[in-house]
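FAQ: What does the model actually see?

It sees only this:
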Amino acid sequence: MLASAEERDVRTMLLGTQRINAQGRLEVGGCDTVELAQQFGTPLYVLDEECFRANCRAYQQAFAVRCPGTVISYAGKALMNLAVCRIADQEGLGLDVVSAGELHTALQAGFPTERLLFHGANKSREELEMVIAHRVGRVVLDSLEEIVALQELAAARGAVVEALLRVSPGVTADTHYHIQTGKTDTKFGFSMVGGAGEEAVARVMATPNIALRGFHCHIGSQILDLEPFEQAGRLMVDFAADMREATGLEVQDLDIGGGLGVRYLPEQQPPSVEQFAEALVKAITLRCQERNLPRPRLLLEPGRSLVGEAGLTLYRVGIVKEIAGLRTYVTVDGSLADNPRPALYGARYDAIVANKAAQPRTRKVTVSGRSCETDTLIVDLHTPEITAGDVLAVQTTGAYNYAMASNYNRFSRPAMALVASGRAEVIVERESLQDLVRMDRVPERLRR
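And it is asked to produce this:
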């Protein structure tokens, strides 16, 4: 039986290199989080470098022993900046980008272009031109219009672009509606049913400047069950075998995307990377044998499961307001501008009062942000006695927090610090008030 939240030892909440130090404070990467808040200000995104690197290596090792040659590409949409790109490169990962901005960031970081994959459901001609000009390793085709545009642009440059075709396997994963991406009813890719996928394969194979190397799918995000991945793997093998029979295509690559979930709450127990690798490789290998298909090279694109638990966000507590008989609101100096996920998906988090990490959690509070609307970050969080000035550390914010941050209410976006071996370094500067108006322009007629 699980212990209640107030009885649970706070050590069961610790992730990565986190620990409670001799002062009873939360520490990560050898750095006292209270001191980080004092040094860099709050809100502050903190990235545990050792945890991030360990997750990268766990994926590499788990698949290397079960399916040699598997390519692990970090899904940059989860969290991307120059330092993160450098870490992914140093760990030997590929990198999945979905926009001109993400591609530009990767290029500025010096990421090898042959290890890049470019996705996107509505790529612009400018983005396709960037793919060709920089010789991106793979482009993932998502529509018939895109096939036509890419062929035209590649022919004009005398280039041959290597591509994967995104298909929808019709798998509905048990996750939030907004992050189910492998259903038949989806904006992404080509359906396996109804002939759309086969038509797209034929169209690409008829284009001299696009070399079709295989197929790609992505079934969703924050998935805590292995069965949908196994199902997707089998369906992708079936599609590859069917296309070989229909068109003669010899599939080199099979990209199963990402989506493995992480622990946002202590009671969540996502599958380990080893369990994920074992289940997926077994399902694909057996189906390849059944269909007499040589096993293609396997590609994976984890994002959240690499960086999610490596991140935390530090806030300073401001107003504590008790509504008699109802609720105690604890308002922090962040908001949905730096973490929109609770508002978007009803996402749930746990948190530790960093300066009182060793104290028993005897109170139940609701953590709110300071946006000009009801932006509840955490409902019914158990904490020690909490007062203005305390530092709250929200767990598992490495993925899709910084990436989705905005300037709503004209809040400046937080800084990010990379911590490792007792060293803390800024990898994203905090936006200034001047940054908020830097791109604004006032027409001359309004100056009078």
